[in-house]
Amino acid sequence: MREDIELELECKYCDYEETLYVPESDYNAWAGNGVPIKEAFDYLSAGQRELMISSTCDTCWNKFFPNYEVSDNRTVTLSKHEVVLDIDTVDAIWEIAHGADGWNREFPDNETIKVLQSFEKKAHMYDQMLELLGFKPEEDY
To answer: What is the C-alpha to C-alpha distance for residues 93 and 88, in angstroms, rounded to an integer?
Structure first.
């Protein structure tokens, strides 16, 4: 007999709420055993899975990240310009975000993007602190 668990999900940016019922075995495979969410919950929409991961509903996600898509083969589309990343570049990006073997540990694209965005935000804050102290931050080219 299949045991379902109830997940009461809420977007942390708006009032959106959704209740999902998923098999407990699927939830445990994802939350406890590291099975990628896309594999464990292949029957849920990408928006529902994102709500589980980041507490961000599909509407808010699309507001925050308009014109952004990542395909399964790691082709990134930004603002109608396609950027193809080779495996060495992707591996390096995932390593920056998640440490050694980040790519092999199959972190989701959206999680990697959030980590990199937090690094960028911290770098801007660091630049602002330097400017307040009277130093001019160096530009990277």
So the answer is: 9
CA distance 116 to 108: 13
Q: For 118, phi and psi rounded to 5 degrees?
A: -65, -40
Q: Where are the domains of the chain?
A: 1-64, 66-141
Helix, strand, coil share of the chain (percent; to 5): 45, 20, 35
Of the CA atoms within 13 Å of residue 95, those in its CB half-sphere come to 8
CA separation for the pair 39, 44 (Å, rounded): 10
Instruction: State the pTM of this model.
Output: 0.50
Distances (CA, A) of 27 to 23, 36, 40: 6, 11, 7
Query: Residue 18 and residue 84: Cα distance in Å, rounded?
Result: 35
pLDDT at 93 over 70: yes
> Token pair of 7, please?
């997940």
For the cut 70, the answer to whether the pLDDT of residue 87 exceeds it is no
Distance, in Å, from the CA atom of 7 to the CA atom of 125, rounded to the nearest integer, reads 36
Inform me whether the pLDDT recorded for 53 exceeds 90: no
